[in-house]
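anyone seen this seq b4? input:
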Amino acid sequence: MSIWWSLDLRREAASVPLARRFLLGAMETAGVDPDISFDLSIALTEACANAVEHGGEQRARGEQGAGQDPWDARGEPSGAACGQYRVTAYLDGETCRIEVTDSGPGFPARRIPRRSAHQPDPLPYPSLGAENGRGLCLIEELADHVHFGNRPGHGAVVSFDKVLKWRKGALLMVS
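predicted toks r here
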């Protein structure tokens, strides 16, 4: 058995704890070890906070179409989705994969993030006193595999996964 879910959320601060609670509830119901659930929820919180802060479309409001579906036929944000971002999670077997996509400008070209928490970072981490930049580092440390990417014309994608540990008698492991 596996679980897959996707949330389309408004780019508002209140959406971040909603996504986190949704993930924690799914993990608890499935029987995932609480320490693993906590790590993934912190990583998700950071990815969502980035989408809320940086994930807005740079189009003028006048270009948004009234009554449009905020996601086009391919499941990608349309021009009207500048106020939204998407969280998708897959719990399948021994892995949880989470993806957060937005319609913002994407990651700067000079930032080449790591692909794994075990791979050296090509750029130094931000200083402890830095106002920004620690969220991506947290995601890298909490997840087993991480990918930060840009979708041409469609914003940023943060995806990460972690090998799961299960409580005894976990629902997903029983099936």
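Strands lie at 2-10, 84-92, 95-102, 145-151, 155-163. The chain has a mean pLDDT of 79. kinda curious what u guys think
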